[in-house]
Amino acid sequence: MKYHLITLGCQMNLSDSERVSAVLEGMGYIRTEIEEEANLLGILACSVRQKPIDKIYNKIAEWNRWKNRRSLITFVSGCILPADKEKFLKSFDLIFQMSELAQLPQMIREYGIVTPAGLKQPSPVMPKNEHILEMWHIQPKYQSTYEAYVPIQNGCDKFCTFCAVPYTRGREVSRPSAEILEEVRHLVSQGYKSITLLGQNVNSYGLDKNGEELSFADLLRKIGEFGKASGEEFWLYFTSPHPQDMNREVIEVIAAYDCLAKQIHLPMQSGDERVLIKMNRRHSMEKYRQIVADIRELLPQATLFTDIIVGFTSEGEPEFQNTVAAMDEFRFNMAYIAMYSPRPGAASFRWENEVAAEVKKDRHRKLSEVMKVHSHQYNESMVGKTVRLLVNGTDRKTGFSTGLTEGKLIVRLDQKDDSLLGKIVDVKITSAADFSMSGALQMVVSIPV
Fold this sequence. Notes:
Blueprint: E1 2-7, H1 11-26, E2 30-31, E3 40-46, H2 50-66, E4 73-79, H3 82-89, E5 94-95, H4 104-109, H5 116-119, H6 132-136, E6 147-151, E7 153-154, H7 165-168, E8 173-174, H8 177-189, E9 194-198, H9 216-230, E10 235-239, H10 248-256, E11 263-265, H11 273-279, H12 285-298, E12 303-310, H13 317-330, E13 334-339, H14 357-381, E14 386-394, E15 401-405, E16 410-413, E17 424-432, E18 437-441
Helix pairs in contact: 8-9, 9-10, 10-12, 13-14
C-alpha cells in the first residue's frame, strides 16, 4: 500500500505533514511521490489564500476521475475555513482536523465514516484546540536528516482583519516546554544543524497557560544553555513573531548564545499607520522601528526578513509610498511580498473599496524592485568575507552545491560535492547577485604537530 501527500501553505503545515506521514507509515503505508501509484491520496490544505484552494479543487476532481478505474481513498486536513470544509465534504472521502490525527488509522479502516469535525456545519466559530496536544505526542517522520521544524504553539489570538488563521487553527495553545526541549535535544543528538520553532505568534508562547509555562524568552534561554553545554554546532530559528509581543529581552537572549541564529523574521505587513490600524495589527510603526533599532544594536550581524501585503482594502498611493519608504529605511535582506487576497471568515472579506488587480500587480512589482536593490547591496558588502554555510542542495542551473548562511542567505558554491550535504562549512564569498551570492569552499588543513 502506498500513499501520496501534498502539502500546501506554511511551515506549520509542513511540520504537520511529518506527523501525518508518521501515522500512515505506522499503518504500513509507503510514501510515493508518484500520485498514480498511490492507494491513499491526501492534501494538507491552506485556506489563507485562494490560489491553494483552487489547486485543491482541481486536484480532487482529477483524483475522483481516477476512481472510475481503480480503488482509492482521498482525504484532506490542514488549515480549512468552514465554507471550504462544506465543499470538501462533497469531494473527499475523509476530512479531519489535525487534532484528530491520532484517529486517522481508525477512519481509514472504517472508510466511509464522517468525522466529528466533518459533521459540524460551517460557521464563524473557531475550531477547538484541546486535542492538539495529542497530535504533538506523535513522533514526526522528519523529511530531512539535517533540518527540522518543531511546533511550539498552534492557533492565533490576534485576529488580523486580513487573516483566516484563527478560523482554521483556532485560539492559541502552547505546547509544554518539556516536550519542546526534549525534541530539540533529540534532534541535536541526531546531528540536525537547522531547527526552527514554529507558531503563528511565537512571542506569545506560554501566555495561554496563565504563568504556568515558560515565556518565549525563557524557552530560548533554555535552548541556548543546552546548546552551549552540548558543544554541538547548530542554528535555532523561530517563526513567526508578532511585533506587538516582540521585546528587547528576546533579542538579548539571542545575542547571548551562539546556537540561537542571528536571523529575525519580523512581519511588518504595511509601512502605513492607517493601514496597520485597518489590518488590526496592534503595533505602530514607532513600535516596529524600536524593535529594529534593538536588533541593529544587539545583533548587528543579524539579517532581517519581513512579510508585506500590497493592495490591502482601500490602500491608496500615499499609503503604498509609506511602505516603500519603510522598505528603504529598514533595508530588509528579504521581504515576502503578497498581493492582498480576501478570504471568507476574515473581517476584511466584507469590506468594499477593493484595490484593482492591475494596481496590486504594479505595486508588487515596484516593491520587489526596491527589495532587489537592498538585497544586492547587502550581498555586495559580503564579498571577500568568509561565512559559515549549511549545504542543503544543488543549483538547478549549474549543478553545483548550494546552501544557506546562518542569516538564511543563499550561497552557490563553485563546486559540487554531495558529501557536504547537511554539513556546515566555511565559504569565502566571491561574488554577489540580487538575491544570492557565490562562494568558494575554504578547506581546513591540519598542520602536523
